[in-house]
Amino acid sequence: MADKAETGIAWGAARALEQGFESPGGTLAIGGKTASALAEAQGTPLFVYSGNLIKARMAALKRLMPEDLHIHYAVKANPFPPLLELMAELADGLDLASGGELALAETLSKNPGHLSLTGPGKGSTEILAGIAAGLLFNAESETELARIEEHARTMGVRARAALRINPDFDLRAGGMRMGGGASFFGMDAEAAPGVMQRWTKKYPHLDFQGFHIFAGSQNLDAGALSDMHAATFDLAARLAARAPAPVRYLNIGGGYGIPYFEKEQKLDIESVASSLSRAMEVRADNLSGARIAIELGRYLVGEAGVYLVRVLDRKVSHGKTFLITGGGMHQHLAATGNLGQVVRRNFPVAVANKMDAPAEETVTVTGRLCTPLDVLARDVQLPWAGLGDLIAVFQSGAYAKSASPSGFLSHAEAGEILA
Ligand SMILES: *Cc1c(COP(=O)(O)O)cnc(C)c1O
To answer: DSSP state, 47?
Structure first.
């Protein structure tokens, strides 16, 4: 609302401009090309990722964060190969969640030592490929550790492994909780000392590296993230006291969020960075030799992506105006609120060629699937739009295309481009 009062333009457009998107002459432009030109050349629906915004985000983060912090990219946020290539350049490491991601990343990363594989239920093929690639395994259970040991022994090599810990605390205030209770991610903090005690004897082919502690996702509260960092270092120090070898690696997770909805405020990253610097400075002696890494997906690439869809129909039903577009939940499940949202709220949306215009009407923007769930923006205030106009859905750079049920209704896949 504040946006609208200040600028007179609809909030979705205002939010996008605030985040660094440009609109020369009132038309959204990415990488020097207008949305209309991109749509014309590539077809729609189209995901456009701004390389410049990603670079700027990473540069700002590197400037603020402690110098000895390693910033990793969580590939599952967006595995589009050209974007991944850029992230392999910019990030200090790539965190993988599957053998498929390993196949994508392996050819890109200059240093295979900077790859790590996390995720419950690793398959034998993934373990074999991971050992061959020389990556670091974040083991999710002792059973899994034993399987990695078995494969390394058979291959006659050593593998690097860390323990993924299900923390005994959780990330408070909003976001997605991933710790503090029963979980199928990682092993309970209480179980780790026993595993480490057995390490030397039972896992001679595994080099103990340290810990991976991931406590949550999509958090916008700097205070909660500071508390999480402090609790993470505290837990890691307690575990390090029982470790079979010096801790060389500590992955403190991430969880930094981006604002999706109108009332959400962006994360105070300066405050997060200064509290993290402090936590790193005062960390226990038994963590002093550890490479500290955060793994971020959404925060690095989420704001850089736009989903462009064309209006195919405009209709009024019982007094309500609908814009029917060529996109939908099969391409952008998250924007329709069906990827774990409890209360459906709108992502920032705008009419791409009317970025500077005030809102003129209340409309509902839909996709074209045969389900009432296929709503991209409900009762949103936009400048007038009709057939052929382009609607831009912002905050679409992470967990968008690759996290959507693309097989549903067998429409063609959305295009993607790094601009
Ligand atoms: C998904 C995931 C991430 C990335 O989370 P974001 O919210 O995108 O930053 C990091 N670590 C692990 C273990 C994950 O599963």
So the answer is: E
